[in-house]
Specification:
It contains 1 helix and 26 strands. With about 350 residues, the chain is mainly beta. It has one domain: Tachylectin-2, Chain A, CATH 2.115.10.
């Protein structure tokens, strides 16, 4: 079913030669959803990359239909993969990382302290702690970036504390990175964490360029999400002292507080180089809306084009859709055909990862 049979154009004056370039989208078509594993009812996000020959997909909160062997009915991170590239016949099939009991494996393993806390505070009734029941301490995954050889990946993540006061009762306490080299096993977290709560949440999106990771953080300012940018050599991603921050005017600073926004984006989105367009392209869902949005730029730091809407996602059951993410390893025709996904709340604690095929003119 077509999401929108539309054509659009935008004037991109960032080409550097003063000439405006018109970029066109021929169509966007919904191609289904990434399947959930059996015994699961929802999961969100879905960053992907190529690891050991697989297209691996990293999900955030994953909700189970049954209590798992560890006593919990949720995971804050999980993963699936496919070895088939997208074609006119669709995407997949997908395989899922599951324990012997059929429940998702935690991709970013909990520390012993986190695991003990989560068991003691699980549920709203009869929790052993007798206070703060329903709260948890857990890492939430953000962007995944894999090196060109596909042998190793870096996952940015936030350490979170969630409370019993509903779905908006959470706060970020720190951030870090995890290394991932075996798609059949969990990643390895870097703890103590790399980033403090005072810093922005690095990992809203990330892209590898010439062996360097360019990683974004988009903090909330009312309805706006100004995005800051950092860069670090891929193999030094775990070294906080190696990060530099875009300060504008061709300058990179060692002080993140000198960083300046590159554009207004979203909490979770994607950036990659599109060979068909000859540009970097950012995809995101704009604000609290269903509007599919893109920008283009010659470099990760910009200058970025104005935001361009190219359609709407399927309406969410409640709240709004989020995490519009491209999967360039599944693109076709040199990037003329892109595969995107977004998270759609389909019911309470039942998110689905919807898939879109976008075709440029």
């Amino acid at each position: 079913m077509s999401l929108a049979a539309i054509a659009w154009s935008c004037t991109d004056s960032s080409s550097g030669d003063g000439a405006a370039r018109v970029v066109g989208v021929d169509s966007i078509v919904e191609v289904g959803a990434v399947p959930l594993p059996p015994k699961h009812k929802g999961r969100d996000a879905g960053f992907s990359g190529t690891l050991r020959g697989r297209s691996v997909w990293v999900f955030g909160d994953t909700f189970l239909l049954e209590i798992a062997s560890d006593g919990l009915q949720w995971r804050s991170s999980s993963w699936s993969w496919t070895t088939d590239r997208s074609s006119d016949d669709g995407i997949g099939p997908f395989s899922h990382a599951l324990d012997p009991d059929g429940m998702a494996i935690q991709l970013l393993p909990h520390t012993s302290e986190e695991a003990s806390y989560n068991i003691a505070h699980q549920g709203q009734e009869d929790c052993p702690a007798k206070r703060d029941c329903g709260s948890r301490r857990t890492p939430w995954p953000q962007a995944l970036v894999t090196e060109k050889s596909g042998q190793t990946g870096i996952i940015y993540y936030m350490n979170m504390e969630t409370g019993p006061g509903g779905q908006w009762d959470f706060r970020r306490v720190s951030g870090s990175v995890a290394t991932w080299s075996d798609p059949d096993a969990p990643a390895s977290r870097l703890e103590p964490p790399l980033f403090t709560a005072k810093e922005p949440a690095w990992g809203a999106a990330a892209v590898l360029v010439d062996e360097e990771i360019y990683v974004y953080a988009c903090e909330s300012e009312d309805e706006h999400r100004p995005c800051l940018l950092a860069r670090v050599p891929f193999h030094a991603a775990a070294d906080r002292d190696r990060y530099l921050f875009w300060a504008g005017n061709e300058l990179w600073s060692e002080d993140w507080q000198r960083a300046v926004p590159v554009f207004d984006g979203a909490p979770l989105f994607s950036v990659h180089y599109n060979a068909f367009l000859g540009k970097f392209i950012a995809f995101y869902l704009a604000g609290i809306s269903d509007v599919l949005t893109l920008r283009t730029a010659p470099l990760p730091q910009g200058p970025w084009s104005e935001a361009t809407s190219f359609g709407k996602s399927e309406r969410a059951f409640e709240n709004w859709n989020y995490a519009l993410i491209a999967h360039p390893e599944l693109s076709r025709d040199n990037g003329r055909i892109e595969i995107l996904s977004y998270t759609r709340p389909a019911a309470f604690l039942r998110q689905e990862t919807r898939l879109i095929e976008l075709r440029f003119d």
